[in-house]
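Sample pair:
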Amino acid sequence: MASIQAIFQYPSSSSITTPFTSLSIFSIPTLPSYISVKPTFTCFSSSSSSLSSSSITDRAEIRLGLPSKGRMASETLELLKDCQLSVRQVNPRQYVAEIPQLSNLEVWFQRPKDIVRKLLSGDLDLGIMGLDTLSEFGQGDEDLILVHDALDYGDCHLSIAIPKYGIFENINSLSELAQMPQWTKEKPLRVATSFNYLGPKFMKEKGFEHVTFSTADGALEAAPAMGIADAIVDLVSSGTTLRENNLKEIEGGIILESQAVLVASKKSLIQREGVLDTTHEILERLEAHLRAAGQFTVTANMRGGSAEEVAERILSQPSLSGLQGPTVSPVFCKRDGKVTSEYYAIVICVPKKALYKSVQQLRATPRWRDILLTLGL
């Protein structure tokens, strides 16, 4: 068969064209129409918060809080745009914007910790922030409902880090740190952190008796070298900053795995008109985009005697089975004045991580497999 070009199209890059035997791959913009996404709400934690309506302000509009600065802000706007929920901000210096696709919704740009506080006070109905911020400033309040716990960006973890040198050189686990004889009532383990709720809570749960915390913002990594702390509790993504400052994480020292989450006020969901429906629509759009973002449609032509034969050949390869199986349809051509069908077009959906393997298997035609078999390869 003559060589036909295949197009590899990725969500945010230009197309790459390469010689191939009738194979094309396209990113999926949305989920198929037959997939229905229902809202699932999870209570973040439990405490003694009440559901009185007195804390909810008397306003008609629904308010969504978004991060105002930094990488979290830009990635949040990009995610919403991918979900066809573009935020329209007339003036970049204004703190209020709108999403035209969602009526009666106001977007308020705030610091992540202020989003949590204003959800609790009733000034916001929905918000996006990191799970670490929610956990630190929400402190388990039952009015905070975790609507979506994995928005697939802002990945990091909250962790304890200690120096690589001195008395900590051979300390590699949290239990070893706790058992060090240096820590006494008179001379406790000194921890610098900006997480003044999660840090002490974690250390108490892990049985540390002699430990004190100092509030610090900014470059915590310098605290041990300056002699003002023995350890730090801070967010870690790649770990490069820790290594460059001669600090190390230890086994059992991860306090919380974090990424961006969507949160709602339970009072708002129950008592405010339109909030539940708006939350449902946002959730469905997020679910559709996040599920589709990791899937690719692969189309190829394959010779076969029947659609069933081709389908059986495809289904024999686990990585080619797709979400629910392949779509197989005949490819008609005219030969000697007659319409015949010697090839079949197959369409499958495969995860991004299995894309290359799927392409390899599709390229392995029966004749090529026979040659490899003959060679014992």
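The two ends are 24 Å apart (CA to CA).
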